[in-house]
Amino acid sequence: MSDVRKIPVMIPMLGEEEALAAADAVRSGWVAQGPRVARFEQEFATAVGAAQGVAVSSCTTALHLALVLHGLGPGDEVIVPSLSFIATANAVRYVGATPIFADVDLATGNLTVETIDAVRTPRTRAIIAVHQGGVPFDTAALRKAAEDWGLALVEDAACAAGSTAYGQPAGTGAAVAAWSFHPRKVLTTGEGGMVTVDDAELATRLRRLREHGMNVSAADRHASAQPVLEAYLETAYNYRMTDIQAAVGLVQLGRLAGLVGQRRALAAGYQSLLADIDGLVPVRDPAYGQSNFQSFWVLINAPYRTGRDEVLAELARRGVSARRGIMAAHLEPAYADVSPAPLPVTERITRDSLILPLHHKVTEDDQRYIVDILRELA
Q1: Rounded to an integer, what distance in angstroms lies between the CA atom of residue 239 and that of residue 63?
Q2: Which of 140, 168, 302, 374 is most buried, judging by how many CB atoms fall within 10 Å of its CB?
Q3: Which residues belong to the active site?
Q4: Residue-range domains of the chain with CATH
């Protein structure tokens, strides 16, 4: 092929400003959890519509702490989507509870009140609902249903920084939400995560849980002019973020609105270019919100004559690094011992969808090149 390119599926938006911020943190001598983390927590919480932010080492540890916060353990069932990165289900097992897989909506990839209700039992104690790929779930409907059922609702907002629901940031009104800053996310600190809550007492306990159960943080001890004798109030964890990561996160947070705007423009470009190809259905905003398009996936329908894996292979041969659609945890060997209720939509999406490149270096010409290949394969 004369026109073979190299188009990666993602590239994190990191530049000289992030490099300088990280270097400043190193030069300051304060590289562990410290003042930059505290500032990042406050500014991120404000950006996503929450009262309190507690920075942690990953979204996986954020989910774990959210479940610990609710006192979940052996004998409890937690409803989760199988259609999610495996960490969502794994966090339930970390506390000894049982993940119960529910199906999802075909258009959004998200849990609905109906799919949750179909697998709810007297042993159900909580729900983890995911804003899948940045597409917000119906926050009003799911929060009300969880309240009516007396269940805790943990929001897995790993991909949702910059997404909105009902005109507000996706985290607004969430009792507890977990966020990711992995390099594939719109906002990255390399690794890292955040728990956001609206209850100050919960935030205090989360800060204790992430730092070995200490009643005073290491940063506060070092800042004190007098000796501080800490106490360890409960068995806890080392889930801290570093000031180096937070320094990068603060720069990224300043870029968030621009990054989301660019991603939404690119998503609109794909949607327009794909409109005349029968059998390819691109992800779109739900009626009640807007996606940050952390992932842009396309579902293959029957009129399209090429299977998903063949499409991925041909794209790769021509320099386009696409990916399979969102995984289904219940089909992985780690969950071979689980016999879930039928999950036809989950299995359909994970079998017949692919994720196309979408990041700040994708050009309109790149998009035309990618869609032309998809059109040939149709």
Answers
A1: 11
A2: 374
A3: 185
A4: 16-254 (3.40.640.10), 256-377 (3.90.1150.10)
